[in-house]
Amino acid sequence: MKYCSTRGKVKGLSFSEAIMMGLADDGGLLLPEEIPTLTAEDLESLKDLSYPELAFAIMAKYATDIPAEDLRSIINRSYSTFADPKVTPITKQDGLFILELFHGPTLAFKDVALQFLGNLFEYYLLKSGRRMNIIGATSGDTGSAAIYGVRGKKNINIFILHPKGRVSPIQELQMTTVTDDNVFNLAVEGTFDDAQTIVKTIFNDLEFKEKHALGAVNSINWARVLAQVVYYFSAWNQVQKQTGAIQIDVSVPTGNFGDIFAGYIAKRMGLPIRRLILATNSNNILSRFINEGDYSIAGVHHTLSPSMDIQIASNFERYLYYLLDQDADQVCATMDRFADEKKINFSPAQIARVKEEFASAFIDDNETIATIREFHQETGYTLDPHTAVGVAVGKQVGSSTTPLVCLATAHPAKFGAAVRDAIGCDPEIPEAFADLAEREKKVETIVADIETIKEFVSARAI
């Protein structure tokens, strides 16, 4: 399997080269040159596998330059850290199938990818004797999951930017209480989009990138997407066994388009997903795109589901590549116009195609709180705000005849204030995080300035 950039100037990379490059050197995002497809018989062969076995079966189709036993070892180590043996178990509540993605070390779906990516990086670096300085931006959960994925690992330093005061208290504490020597937390005085733009700009400085051996853990790294593809197959296996269904709908709360893009890849591989439902909050650029063909930047709203408080969806370019029929020149021209005009225009035919592949809606904070409250009253099950967005939108636009899977992307304890407002009491805090507020902290407040952040990284790079 070889990898190419959405912008056409990087191609023919191995899996290892693609993962270590992160953002393509031409500014694009890396994708496999072809997507493997599975037959009905292939899907049947996957249905009784354990999660690590399933992950190997899927990932081995893409990571073709890693010896099979090495890949198995990386996968087994990555998912041995999860509290549930199923890794991503399904629970049926109120007629919905909730895919719990929060049983990893930081109680968020991003652990599924970042435990794998951390072990993958260490494997490559120790094998080659190379070093890496990871730089990433987070709107909430990516930062802590990335930090827990690489803390204490050899030959790696990590620099995580988060928007100061715009992540939940427990998300901030999960990041800033990791005091390992190789971990650096930067509280940026700005929005997530500011931080993400800084990271992308730094990666596009190829001289700086090469000098400091920069690596990416944001969902711009293909390994992140690949690891997330697996749990769509896991969801199908679990729901199909319970229902005998021939298709499923999947509701995905997303702001960066990475999680739902993994579902899009799973569907292209042949997984029987009838419709991917994109659920978002008042930062509704992706919902406007799907429903109206309006991909234009508006102001960022601070909401109760902060991981979706995003206007520039960093994985959108990957889908755009397929929507433009893998025409890299068109992708380049479109992204250049977007940088200047802050919007992308789509033809009626393109909009119709998008609507065949996705459905979408958005809800505001009041509806989010109401959904948490009502779901808890009806089932006793507590949703976090992001999952509540997915549940509410899934109910709005899903099919009454197709089982609906809703991705539960975070443990409710990560968003205690919102949950308390909804149900009148605090969610139970897992024992591993009961003393977070008392732990030593390590964080630097920094202006949202590219050169200032480059200087900080240069002074501390490994």
CATH architecture level-2 label of the domain at 90-107 and 223-423: 3-Layer(aba) Sandwich
Which regions are unreliable across 5 or more consecutive residues at pLDDT < 50? none
Distance between the termini: 31 Å
Compute the average pLDDT.
95
Give the beta-strand count. 15
**Percent range for helical residues?**
40-55%
CATH level-3 fold name of the domain at 90-107 and 223-423: Rossmann fold
Largest sheet: 6 strands, mixed
Number of helical segments?
19
Q: Indicate the CATH class of the domain at 90-107 and 223-423.
A: Alpha Beta
Secondary structure class reads alpha/beta
Please state the overall shape, judged from the principal axes of the Cα atoms.
globular
Gyration radius (Cα, Å) is: 20 Å
Order of strands side by side in the largest beta sheet? 3-4-14-9-10-13
Q: Tell me the strand percentage band.
A: 15-25%
